[in-house]
């Protein structure tokens, strides 16, 4: 069990928020990492492993024209996967992984090209600027190493957003208490 996954579960539980996961190249490893954490059921809604490209459209509502034009290994695809799983599973947060673990290139992208995304709460009181964040990765190593680093990276991205949302809320409260200054 990773400390990142435990930190994610702890923060989500404290906030009373939930998480859904959309995975492609990681094939369920992100969900496995999260559910290895005791108490994960308080925050984890579920996951969709959309390994086949057409499932990204059918199950996660990724734009078919986007998939047709660029393939599944694309930053916008990752963002739409995160947003789609969040909506489909009714979660506060959605995270996604898509990329090329190898051994061969895919969609014109070299092995090690990975996109991870997070989509969180939007609007007043959420502490979030809204929308999603996508991170492009160029990973080295064999298939297993690329997949495991993708898991670590998407959890780190989510953790960063959860922590910044938390500190953003504190800053907003401080501003209110100090008369707006």
Automatic annotation (TrEMBL):
<dbReference type="InterPro" id="IPR036653">
    <property type="entry name" value="CinA-like_C"/>
</dbReference>
<feature type="domain" description="CinA C-terminal">
    <location>
        <begin position="4"/>
        <end position="161"/>
    </location>
</feature>
<dbReference type="InterPro" id="IPR008136">
    <property type="entry name" value="CinA_C"/>
</dbReference>
<dbReference type="Pfam" id="PF02464">
    <property type="entry name" value="CinA"/>
</dbReference>
<protein>
    <submittedName>
        <fullName>Damage-inducible protein CinA</fullName>
    </submittedName>
</protein>
């Amino acid at each position: 069990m990773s400390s990142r996954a435990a930190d994610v579960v702890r923060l989500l539980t404290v906030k009373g928020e939930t998480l859904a996961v959309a995975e492609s190249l990681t094939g369920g490893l992100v969900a496995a990492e999260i559910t290895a954490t005791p108490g994960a059921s308080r925050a984890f809604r579920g996951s969709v492993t959309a390994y086949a490209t057409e499932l990204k459209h059918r199950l996660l509502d990724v734009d078919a024209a986007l998939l047709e034009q660029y393939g599944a290994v694309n930053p916008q695809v990752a963002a739409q996967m995160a947003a789609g799983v969040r909506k489909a599973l009714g979660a506060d947060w959605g995270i996604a992984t898509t990329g090329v673990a190898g051994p061969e290139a895919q969609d014109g992208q070299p092995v090690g090209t990975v996109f991870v995304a997070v989509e969180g709460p939007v609007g007043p009181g959420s502490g979030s600027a809204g929308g999603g964040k996508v991170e492009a990765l160029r990973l080295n190593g064999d298939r297993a190493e690329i997949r495991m680093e993708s898991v670590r990276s998407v959890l780190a991205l989510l953790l960063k957003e959860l922590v910044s949302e938390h500190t953003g809320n504190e800053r907003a409260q401080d501003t209110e208490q100090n008369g707006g200054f």
